[in-house]
Design a protein that fits this description.
This protein is 8% helix and 52% strand. It is mostly beta strands. Strands 1, 2, 3, 4, 5, 6, 7, 8 and 9 form a nine-stranded antiparallel sheet that branches. The longest helix has 11 residues. The chain is globular.
Length: 208
Amino acid sequence: MKTRKLLLILVAALMIAAGPVAAMPLPTGQTAQQWDFDNNSNPAIPEIDLNPYGTAIATMAGSDSGPPPDWVTNLLGRDGVWTGEGILKVILEIPNQMIPNPYKEIGLEIGFVGDLVDFSIIPIPIGGSVELVEQNIEVVDPTNGWLKLTAKFILEPNPYSEIICYSFASGLAAIDYIIVKTICVPEPMTVSLIGLGGLILARRRRRS
């Protein structure tokens, strides 16, 4: 089974650093959500949801001409994994603060197997600019082929929500988990996203 560490200590530290925030798990304008895909729900809501502005959803899809994606209880040492033959797409819809701030930062982390073939962010309402600040892929399990993708985007101005699309290709592409954190920046200053892995949880996996 997957194991999780609750965010109480980290959230408390974040709230202390940001000052008093009444009855909110994160400072105003911030969201954090994580999908572990504990079941085959598609679309899926996040197992860890710190988004006071609405419920984010993740939709898994395959290629237009291929078979639909499949959820499996265990694959290559990971529990709760979506797989796809040829192409595996994930479409994330993230609601956020409906205030016209100057810009928004988006941090993304995906555990996957395969090759990254396409990605995009569509701001809602459509308009403004989308800038990819950085994107990296690292090997986390060379034996089983698991990789970790991390990316950071800046959207100007702040949209009310965004649609994030990522596609992976392989004989058997797979997605194990997804983490998304957003910050709507109310002032023209740099606000860096907290490290995604540390914000959400320390992940331990049961190997088959």
